[in-house]
Structure formats: C-alpha cells, structure tokens
Amino acid sequence: MIRIINRFTIIVLILVCAVALVGFFMDIYIPYLKEALLGIAALLGVLFLFKVSLRWQALLMGIKSKGYNLTTSGFNRVSVAEGVTLFYYLSVAVVLLVFFDQMQVIALLCLIFFVEGLAHLIVQIYAKPYKVLLNNKTITSITNEMKFIKWNQIKKIESRHNDVHFIDKLGRVQKIDTELILKEDKDEFIDEVNRMAREKNIYCSINCKRGYYHKEETEG
User: Fold this and answer.
1) Are 93 and 17 in contact (CB under 8 A)?
2) Exposure of 201 in the CB half-sphere (CA atoms within 13 A)
3) Closest C-alpha to 209, from 133, 185, 198
4) Which residues constitute the domain of residue 22?
5) What is the CB-side half-sphere exposure of residue 39 using CA atoms within 13 A?
6) Does residue 117 sit within a domain?
7) CA atoms within 13 A on the CB side of 67
8) What global pTM score does this model have?
9) 3-class secondary-structure state, position 155
10) Collapsed DSSP state (helix, strand, coil) of residue 146
11) What are the tens digits of pLDDT across the range 130-177?
C-alpha cells in the first residue's frame, strides 16, 4: 500500500511540474489553475495522512515487538531506496518555491513528505524498529515499505537463492530477503517459518540455510 501511495504521489507531482513548466516557458493561460492546484493539494494531503497512519503505526509496532532485526547492509538498502524518494520530494519543493508562486502550497506539502521520510529513517537509527515479525496470523516486514502476509492466504512457501517466497492461493508472490536479516536471527526465522508451516499444513521448501526442509503437499 505504501508503494502504491508513493508511486501515485510521484505521478501527481510529475504532472504538476509538467503543467508548471508549460505555463512558465510557453506563457499559456491555464483556466481554473488555482482551483485545480487546491484540489491537488487536498489530494496530496489525504495521501500523506494515509501514508503517515500506515507507516508510523507499523513503526510503533516494530519498536514494541520482538522480531528479526535488519542487518546494517539491509538498512543501507532501505535508506538508498527511501533517499531517492526524499531527493525527489526536496527537488520538486525547491523548484516550485523558487519559480512558481502559485504552487507554494504544493511545495510545502513536498517538504512535509520529505521531513516525514527523513524522520522515519532517523527513528530506525536510534530505535531499530525495522524488522520482520512472525505470529500465528501474519508475517510482517517493517521497513520504509511494509509487507503484511496472512497465513490463511498462503498456499506454499519456497526459496529462491536468499529469498523466501510466500505464494498465495492466487499465485501471487511476496518475498522476504533473508540476507537483510541479522545472521544470528536468520536461521531462527527460517526454523520458525518451517514450524508454523507444518502446523498449518502448508507446503514449505526452504533452502536458505545450512539445512533443508521439505514437506509434501497434503491432498485436498
């Protein structure tokens, strides 16, 4: 969901910048521009509230819950991905503030998106909420983008290199990269996935550690 919000927000901002540049360089009058910009600002505000609600609830869950922590390289990968998005927000904000007076509200919203993302990374540095959580109902991966995988939707579990693939009943795949998990937590995570899969009669074939577990799929 966070990924969808990010992509949609970026698409909206690209369109805003395109309209702004056309109006600036071609000196074209755009009717109802003020009203359109207010509508876009309201849309971005709603998207921001959804994003904050989802990300920070998950962050608090990670702080309070015991789980499988990320490695330094795992955090670095997450930081790079988030950093690209933050750079985009900051660049758009600066361009709109400097060149387009009518778009200062949207520029301010871009700065708010930037500050929220930066705060998210700072919290990880000090509180270490980024982790993978396992319980009887879900597998939850908490980073800058969250994954919620429900056990009752999983048909089978397989491994590809260092990824654990959770395949649902519609054939869709969600991945957990075990290389992002601390070495001392990795084997325990895989063992726990195997154990819970056995309890739930889910086909599980994982080969991301020293051992190998294979369970034949039950009939029916």
Assistant:
1) no
2) 3
3) 185
4) 2-127
5) 6
6) yes
7) 26
8) 0.78
9) strand
10) coil
11) 889 998 999 998 888 888 889 999 999 988 877 888 988 888 888 888
